[in-house]
C-alpha cells in the first residue's frame, strides 16, 4: 500500500497504561504506530528517511492523559501528505511530519491491538493492547465488521471476543467532606493497606488509622502532588517516620 491520504478512526477503552493500538511498517523504513505510553496517546510516523541521514523522517506526537480510565475514547487520524490532524475526544492537534516525503509506503499488513515480533528492539519492548476497541475504520474499510464476519484475507485473528468484558472493580468517589470508615483488627500486629486512586487535587488525606492501645497512628496523604506516609509511634525515641514518593 502506498498512500498519499489516510483516514484511520477507532474507539477504545482500557485500564492499562501501555499498549500498541495499531501498527504498520514497510521495507523502505516507513512506519506508523499508535500506542499508549504512561496512559498518554503517542503517534509515531515516518514517511521515509534516506541512508545519508540528510532526510530524517521520524515524527512523534503525544496527546491526552489518564487514558487508562476504562472510559471510551475516540481517535481520528487524518493525513494528507505530510499534514496530519490527530483528534482525540474532539480535541484536534495539527502538525507536519519531518522529512521530505509525502507517501506512506507499507508493504506489510497493518495490525490492530499489537504488533508482530520483527526481531527489532522496538517490537520486543512494546506491549500489546489489552482492552476494548470498536468502530475501527481504516481508509473506508470497517475492520471491526470484516473481522467479525471473517472477511479479512489474509488475517491472523488471535484470541478475540466480540464483546467487552467489564472489570470487577468498584470505584468510590469522595468529595471534600466525605470519607469511608472501616473496622480495624485490634488483635493483629500487622498493618497492611493497598488501593488505587486518581485525583486532580494536589493535596488531600488518603488514609488515616490509629493503632490500638494508643501506640500511635499512620497517615497517608498527598502533599503538593506527592504521596507521603507518616507513621507516629509513641513508645520509641524516634517516634515519627516520614516516607515521600
From TrEMBL:
CDD domains per record: LamG
Laminin G domain mapped to chain residues: 1-164
Top-level taxonomic group: Eukaryota
PROSITE patterns: LAM_G_DOMAIN (PS50025)
Gene3D superfamilies listed in its UniProt record: 2.60.120.200
Coiled-coil annotated spans: none
Short name of any one Pfam family annotated for the protein: Laminin_G_2
Protein name: CNTP2 protein
Encoding gene per record: Cntnap2_0
Amino acid at each position: 500500500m502506498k498512500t498519499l491520504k489516510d483516514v484511520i478512526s477507532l474507539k477504545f477503552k482500557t485500564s492499562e497504561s501501555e499498549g500498541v493500538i495499531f501498527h504498520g511498517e514497510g521495507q523502505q523504513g516507513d512506519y506508523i504506530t499508535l500506542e499508549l505510553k504512561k496512559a498518554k496517546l503517542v503517534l509515531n510516523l515516518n514517511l521515509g528517511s534516506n541512508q545519508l541521514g540528510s532526510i530524517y523522517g521520524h515524527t512523534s506526537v503525544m496527546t491526552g492523559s489518564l487514558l487508562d480510565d476504562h472510559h471510551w475514547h475516540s481517535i481520528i487520524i487524518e493525513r494528507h501528505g505530510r499534514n496530519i490532524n490527530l483528534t482525540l475526544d474532539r480535541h484536534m492537534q495539527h502538525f507536519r511530519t519531518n522529512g521530505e516525503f509525502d507517501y506512506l509506503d507499507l508493504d506489510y499488513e497493518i495490525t490492530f491491538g499489537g504488533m508482530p515480533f520483527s526481531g527489532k528492539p522496538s517490537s520486543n519492548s512494546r506491549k500489546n493492547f489489552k482492552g476494548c476497541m470498536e468502530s475501527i475504520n481504516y481508509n473506508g474499510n470497517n475492520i471491526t465488521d470484516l473481522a467479525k464476519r471473517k472477511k479479512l484475507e489474509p488475517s491472523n485473528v488471535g484470541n478475540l471476543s466480540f464483546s467487552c468484558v467489564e472489570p470487577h472493580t468498584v470505584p468510590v468517589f469522595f468529595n471534600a467532606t466525605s470519607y469511608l470508615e472501616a473496622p480495624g483488627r485490634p488483635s493483629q500486629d500487622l498493618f497492611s493497606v493497598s488501593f488505587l486512586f486518581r485525583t486532580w487535587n494536589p493535596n488531600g488525606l488518603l488514609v488515616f488509622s490509629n493503632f490500638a492501645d494508643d501506640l500511635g497512628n499512620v497517615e497517608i496523604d498527598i502533599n503538593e502532588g506527592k504521596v507521603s506516609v507518616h507513621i507516629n509511634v509513641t513508645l520509641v525515641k524516634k517516634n515519627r517516620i516520614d516516607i515521600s514518593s
